[in-house]
Amino acid sequence: MMKSVVVFYSLDGGTRKAAEKIAERLQADIVELQPEKRIPGKGFFKYMVGGMQVKSGKKPALKPYVFQKDAYDLVILGTPIWASGYTPAMNTFLSENDISDRKIAVLTSSAGGDATQCLETMKKMLPNLVASVCLMDERRSEPAENDRKLEN
User: Fold this and answer.
1) Type and span of the H or E element at 104
2) What is the pLDDT of residues 116-144, one digit of tens each?
3) Closest to 53 in 3D by CA, of 11, 94, 86
4) Which end of the chain is more exposed for a tag (fewer CB within 10 A), N or C?
5) How far apart are CA 150 and CA 19, in angstroms?
């Protein structure tokens, strides 16, 4: 049986909710990435700070987490899309862990932007990407639509 792990970052809880559903469904382990310094969670500064960090390639220090690559056949990465890219916390994780020899799936969540650029970037750096799903913020789409995507 394939052993899986869901590694995710979530600022507002949307990605966390989806990551937990996937982990439960696949009986996968789950690892939450948490930056030592939290990004503002509300208002204009949330978008400004997060977007600037994505565009500058920032790799913030993360709170300690346990991830043992060799224990897993499949690594599912969960990240919101910020400024058409994946989050700085995920950038740190990917720089600290060479998962290029694992099967990889990507879960993205978006408040309204297109996931294409983010997924293309991840495909280039993760040659073993076997699946991806992009969810929309439930405040802007039907929750049932996200549930259908996750089930598939």
Assistant:
1) strand 103-110
2) 888 888 888 888 999 888 776 655 555 55
3) 86
4) N
5) 10
| Alpha helical stretches, state H, 32-87 | 43-55
Locate tokens 């970037």: which residue? 121
- Across the range 60-84, mean pLDDT stands at 94
Distance CA 62, CA 37 (A): 8
Show the CA angle centred on residue 47, arms to residues 41 and 52, nearest 5°: 120
b/e 20-48 (16+ beta carbons within 10 angstroms → b): bbbbeebebbbbbbebeeebeeeeeeeee
DSSP annotation of 136: E
